[in-house]
């Protein structure tokens, strides 16, 4: 296929051209949109690949000029950019782009697009590149290396949380088990645990292992996709597969996860008809796209997670036993935070330091009295709730250590001691002052905190409730801090 490649970055352009030539295509390179337009008008190109951000004529401007040309019917345009902006992608597709890719470009994904174009135009399918070549060329450009470094930093940060978060013996054993599962990609893994226990974090640890993986990690929440769209989302679909489908077809999450990991969250909610097809993918390592007749081989690790009781769903017929037992070859049960109390304070300190650094606050640790409140709370939201609690404390206050008063706005004190205390409504015209005296400032501060709690932190609403201006309330909060 004749391909016109447009990119002002020479290293990036040379790398992509080399990959396409190696795959059997003829490539003409241009370093700007003006030169590319001249080549386009003078020759026949079934495909134009163009960067979006370039000096002079941008990729979008080039696309619009090609779309306005009589030769547009013979050409498809694919744009690529290092800027992940949904508005830019929407504008490109509206202007007539066939597809839109992000740098660093995944060569296998690009060649799959070219394969679909070749089939649409009656041409031959591409010859897949060797794994050794992809590994050699995949991150050869400076832009690609920078993007990889950003990804590694993000993953390293997450990996640090994994290790630092395993304080109790049971969580340390889970960490070791995750490392074992990482070594064998053919073993499917089922992770069970309540909401907020960190199922996806464990899944990513299985994916990454002790080093940071460059392979894709594709996550799907089975409850977030309607049953009608689930199959096409997972397997992709061919052109004209159903009414309203894209003319060019669409690759699915199985394609995107090729060579890496597919993470299916809330697997218990997967439609029953798709459970059979997922089982086939696990066993046969192949699948069909919606509306397709060609078997597609796949190489993925499958990790599933659920907070539902799958055994009960087995008995009710809502979940297939054969899929359940196939997924359960590798199994991890994450205990709720209330069952590993020794993790609560270390995790709180971990999150506290993290948010303090991000927000420029002074917090260093959780005080002894506050720690007693934290460990006495049941944490129905588990680690996620604890993390959110520490983020809220850092947002609201600035101190060296967390004190019980800092937790009042979260309602922890009343919840931890609800069996021993009843909420009392203040009657402003009928109450008794203790003879031993008390701090008026502390009393007013507590009232302000309770008002904020009642209105979920909405300062304007709390101020109206207390009969004061929002400015006065903010000044009071500054004194509390």
Automatic annotation (TrEMBL):
Give GO terms for biological process.
phosphorelay signal transduction system; regulation of DNA-templated transcription
Q: Which residues carry this modification: 4-aspartylphosphate?
A: 51
- Any idea where the Response regulatory domain is? 2-118
**Protein name in the entry:** Fis bacterial regulatory protein hth signature
Q: Keywords for this entry?
A: ATP-binding, DNA-binding, Nucleotide-binding, Phosphoprotein, Transcription, Transcription regulation
List, in alphabetical order, the Gene Ontology terms for molecular function in this entry. Answer: ATP binding; sequence-specific DNA binding
Organism, scientific name? Lucifera butyrica
Q: Which domain of life is it from?
A: Bacteria
What residues does the Sigma-54 factor interaction domain cover? Answer: 168-395
Q: Where are the transmembrane segments?
A: none
Record-linked Pfam families: AAA_lid_14, HTH_8, Response_reg, Sigma54_activat
User: CDD domains of this UniProt entry?
Assistant: AAA
